[in-house]
Design brief:
about 725 residues; alpha/beta; Alkaline Phosphatase, subunit A; Arylsulfatase, C-terminal domain; 3 domains; about 15% strand
Length: about 725
């Protein structure tokens, strides 16, 4: 113990000596960045999230997370201080050395003044550059504070290229580094030259270095230590809320997907694949288990720990047994994967709980720190940034995907890659947020689909979206889709370069679609089941190594639970018994129950009775997501649905089946249930209910529907007078 205390005192004494000796160097930068810390926190001191501030929520956060708040603020303060001190030392040394170079001897005050000036000027250059590249990060915590700030941000993003700020910034950085390291560089170059001239260079070290370089090159090219296995790799490239009808290859008016188009031209594409649930969590569980929520019981985005901490038979568990390396890589929308064990041996995705949310809120408010940490270094210092919805990590996800592919070393892999760029709030970086947008737009959705701040009047309220707003949102979405397409192209190019493309089944798909103001369907997903935009997902299979695989587009009605059985059939792997879906490339594709697909809604996220949209007025009501959610303090402080609402949220779901060309939607209401019938082929947006015109078909579809739900749920529903009652001990109402 005494030795530990003595070592600690010695270390502290050495640090004090160093800090005291070099105080003149780091102090200007340290003070400058501490001022930045003060400005950022005075400007944005609140617990708002996405523009929403609730006093009760703020109080609850303070009571339950005061320790997390203090530690995060302390961490942020240290980051400001360390960055300021290091940059201060570098700039101060550069100023001193520049003075000597030009035969000047600046005093401490002069050097300190120049240091502060250079740091402030460089920070402003970087701040302006980042505002143009990622304006979404600065709307709520900068532009919303003043019409002057807003006008400044709009002027930059509308008129200035980021290189206008990045070029002078890089020139300043280069000059600073050159002057700061000039004495050291000259000394080291001179010493190295002396060793070489005097033949005292250690040639054996050079030989070792050359051998290591050759070894690394051969290893990277898979010449040595390459485990050969000809079973096909399976790579799923997906992004949240992708609409296949927005692919330019499928007739969309904009050239949004040139890389995906090239894949489609030599692949098998299925149109009409419907998601089991238009919400991310239950949708991915359905895809990977090849089961509907009726069977696997993950019904919404916030299941309690008892519902998900069980063993799930999935495609991953089956492929693990076959010797595959299984992994999933994602950014903020993939926070579901660490919350449930779906059999992946490798998971690279953010953790989402209240602790991470509080940390993200604090980070997002550091207006003058964000330009320095919105990069790879920032991700190391603040891992919670991976879960920020307004900051795209598309490039990082692709880089990690490429690294995972290379690390396989020939062993077959099953990798699911899930980008978030096309997820709400459609926050694409420069230039994608303006690529398809109409110039001159000044509405609330200039940079992303935010929900609170009204930029055009400063009132802080939002009304109904105008036609101009809707056009802008669709433009933002298309820009995000184009960015996803770019990353697909990067990954495909790497597979081709590494010679892996012929032995890799590449799948392009999504978890669900997205309503984009189509007809009267509204905006978003999961609130209803009318139409196809929120339900249909892309399903493209690219497998050059299987020459007999049919290419082209097959249209019909299929289910997302058919994806895994189809991939197993393509890979020549026996279909597991727990799969409920069918292979779409097998000879016999009949399920035997007459149903092509089944879908159900998620939770009601919003209950807006003033909205003209139909689904707000045709449902069994319960409080919106803020009223039914809870914090599981006993299990990772995760957001879950209160137990007393489990039954009613299940009973209130819309449910739909497609059989042949007909679609039946079951809509439970307080006074009973309502059924709507549509001809899905002739009326894909479900605008004309034909239930009264075709009573015979309606009755047949109703029987199919009730028999299917009862069977698939293992009799966990009772059918009474055309209503589905969940079998739980808690009362339904």
């Amino acid at each position: 113990m005494n030795s530990i205390l003595h070592s600690t005192k010695s270390l502290w004494g050495m640090m004090r000596k160093i800090l005291g000796q070099y105080r003149a160097h780091y102090l200007p930068g340290l003070i400058t960045f501490l001022v930045f810390f003060g400005i950022s926190n005075v400007l944005n001191f609140s617990f708002s999230y996405m523009g929403n501030t609730n006093p009760e929520v703020a109080k609850a956060i303070l009571v339950n997370f005061w320790g997390t708040i203090i530690l995060q603020i302390l961490k942020v303060l240290i980051a400001y201080g360390v960055i300021g001190a290091l940059l201060g030392v570098l700039v101060f040394r550069a100023v001193i050395e520049a003075g000597r170079t030009f035969h000047r001897s600046p005093g401490y005050r002069t050097a300190a003044g120049f240091t502060v000036g250079i740091l402030v000027f460089s920070t402003m250059l970087q701040f302006c550059e980042k505002i143009i590249i990622n304006p979404q990060l600065y709307v709520e915590n900068f532009a919303s504070h003043s019409w002057l700030f807003l006008s400044f941000q709009m002027f930059l993003t509308d008129n200035i290229h980021p290189l206008v700020f990045s070029v002078p910034l890089y020139i300043i950085m280069l000059l600073v580094v050159c002057f700061a390291l000039k004495p050291v560089a000259l000394r080291e170059v001179k010493a190295l030259f002396t060793r070489i001239i005097s033949f005292r260079f250690r040639w054996y070290a050079a030989g070792v270095i050359c051998v290591m370089i050759i070894f690394m090159v051969l290893y990277q090219q898979r010449v040595i230590f390459y485990e050969e296995d000809r079973r096909p790799n399976i790579l799923i490239l997906s992004s949240d809320a992708v609409r296949s009808d927005h692919f330019s290859a499928n007739g969309y008016s904009r050239s949004t997907t040139p890389n995906i188009d090239r894949v489609i031209n030599c692949s098998l594409q299925f149109r009409g694949v419907m998601t089991a649930v238009p919400r991310t969590f239950p949708s991915w569980v359905s895809i990977l288990t090849s089961q509907y929520p009726l069977s696997h019981n993950i019904k919404h985005m916030f299941p309690r720990s008892r519902d998900r901490n069980i063993f799930f038979d999935t495609a991953c568990t089956a492929l693990n047994a076959e010797g595959y390396r299984t992994g999933v890589i994602s950014d903020f929308a993939g926070d579901i994967f660490p919350r449930i064990d779906l059999g992946f041996k490798y998971t690279r995705a953010p953790h989402f709980n209240f602790t991470a949310l509080v940390k993200q809120i604090i980070i997002e408010k550091q207006t003058l720190l964000l330009p320095f940490i919105s990069n790879g270094l920032g991700m190391l210092l603040f891992p919670e940034m991976r879960g920020i919805a307004k900051y795209s990590h598309h490039r990082m996800v692709s880089d990690e995907t490429i690294d995972y592919i290379d690390s396989a070393r020939g062993r077959p892999f099953f990798l699911t890659v899930f980008y978030s760029i096309t997820h709400f709030p459609f926050a694409a970086p420069y230039p994608y947020y303006q690529k398809y947008a109409r110039g001159g737009y000044r509405g609330p959705y200039k940079y992303y689909k935010q929900v609170v701040i009204q930029m055009d009047n400063g009132s802080g309220t939002t009304g109904e979206d105008t036609a101009e707003d809707r056009e802008q949102v669709i433009s933002l979405y298309d820009g995000c889709l184009n960015l996803f397409d770019l990353e697909v192209g990067r990954v495909m190019a790497h597979l081709r370069k590494q010679g892996l493309l012929d032995n890799t089944i590449v799948v392009i798909t999504s978890d669900h679609g997205e309503n984009l103001y189509d007809h009267n369907l509204g905006m978003g997903h999961g609130e209803h089941l009318k139409g196809y935009p929120a339900l249909e997902i892309p399903f493209i299979i690219h497998y050059p190594g299987k020459r007999d695989l049919y290419t082209g587009t097959k249209k019909g009605f299929f289910s997302s639970i058919d994806i895994m059985p189809t991939l197993f059939a393509c890979a020549g792997i026996r279909k597991p018994e727990f799969f409920r879906g069918r292979s779409l490339v097998s000879e016999n594709r009949d399920t035997g129950n007459g149903i092509n697909s089944y879908s159900e809604t998620g939770l009601w996220f919003d209950n807006n009775k003033s909205s003209p949209l139909f689904f707000h007025h045709a449902r069994i009501d319960y409080p919106d997501i803020t009223g039914i959610s809870d914090m599981d303090m006993e299990y990772n402080r995760e957001i879950v649905i209160q137990q007393r609402y489990q039954n009613i949220t299940n009973a209130a779901k819309y449910r739909a089946i497609i059989s042949g060309k007909y679609k039946l939607i079951y809509i439970p209401l307080p006074g009973g249930s309502r059924f709507e019938l549509y001809d899905q082929e002739k009326d894909p947006f479900n605008q004309h209910n034909i239930a009264k015109l075709h009573n015979g078909i309606l009755q047949k579809m109703k029987k199919l529907f009730f028999d299917f739900v009862v069977k698939e749920s293992n009799n966990n529903f009772i059918v009474n007078r055309g209503f589905l009652f969940p079998m739980f001990s808690d009362p339904a109402f």
